[in-house]
Amino acid sequence: MTQTPELNLVLDADTEQEITFTPNRFVIAGWTGRDKVAMEKHMAELEELGIKRPAATPVFYRASTSRLTQQELLQNPGEGSSGEVEFVLFNIDGDWWIGTGSDHTDRQVEAFNITVSKQMCDKPIASRLWNYADLRDHWDDLEIRSHALIDGQRVTYQHGTVAAMLSPDELVASFEAQTGTQFGPGDVMMGGTLAAIGGVRPAEAFEFELHDAKRGRTISHRYHVESLPNVG
Fold first, then answer.
1. What pLDDT score was predicted for residue 46?
2. Strand 143-150 vs strand 128-131: parallel, antiparallel, or unpaired?
3. In whole angstroms, what is the distance from residue 84 CA to residue 72 CA?
4. Residue 93 to residues 23, 62, 81, Cα–Cα distance (Å)
5. What are phi and psi of 178, to 5 degrees?
6. CA-to-CA distance for 64 and 54, rounded, in angstroms?
């Protein structure tokens, strides 16, 4: 039986509150870009490589809640996995909170089944969350960025604003319309990512952050990746 993790979170609003949160459902949103023309072009490129386009966009992948982690070490078979920074939406007692995480994915498995690939790796998340109500008036200005340690060198891996993706309100509306279920208390959703600068590739360590310039604050997390032997 899969054990649902307990996450230690800090709710950062007018005051800070430490809570223990047990996720009920974990959803990873894909194809969340606002630029539909660019998405169509990319889907056509992937089709030429034999990767099927999603039946609808955005698409919502279910993953086990046990994959959510706050650990600083990921152990994955082989060297074909990599991270990607995303904003993360939490429903905590009916209130929406925003954090950040990494949709670390096995890229070799992703080539033949995206849903399966989402279940192959743990998904690291930062512990601090901001109240979404405090972000709505400047949501599009929030920055997400990541750095990767590759061959001993720290490089900028992703950088941009959340304006490139659908907002939490739009994502939840699409999710509820597609699934016929509500995004309810205990639910967690990753909101999509940016293209990797220099292409998707593995790294020895991965750092990611969500930056709010208006309020001068940042949420961040870092983890190392250990590649376990893949003996077939």
1. 66
2. unpaired
3. 15
4. 11, 21, 34
5. -75, -40
6. 21
Report which DSSP code applies to 165.
B
Q: Quote the tokens at residue 98.
A: 């925003």
Instruction: Evaluate the CA torsion angle 87, 91, 94, 95 in order and state its sign.
Output: negative
Q: Is 132 helix (H, G, I), strand (E, B) or coil?
A: helix
Q: CA-based angle 120:1:94, to the nearest 5?
A: 80
φ/ψ bin of 174: left (φ > 0), alpha (ψ from -120 to 50), beta (otherwise): alpha
CA of 183: how far to CAs of 91, 144, 176, in Å? 7, 23, 7
Is the distance from CB of 67 to CB of 4 less than 8 angstroms? no
For residue 119, give both structure tokens.
């279940």
The count of other CB atoms within 10 Å of the CB of residue 100 is: 28
- Which residues partner with 98 through β-bridges? 89, 130
Contact (CB, 8 A) for 99 and 129: yes
At residue 185, what is the residue type? P
With a cut of 50, which residues of the chain have pLDDT below it? Answer: none
DSSP code string of 35-96: -HHHHHHHHHHHHHTTPPPPSSSSEEEEE-GGGEE--SEEEEESS-EE--EEEEEEEETTEE
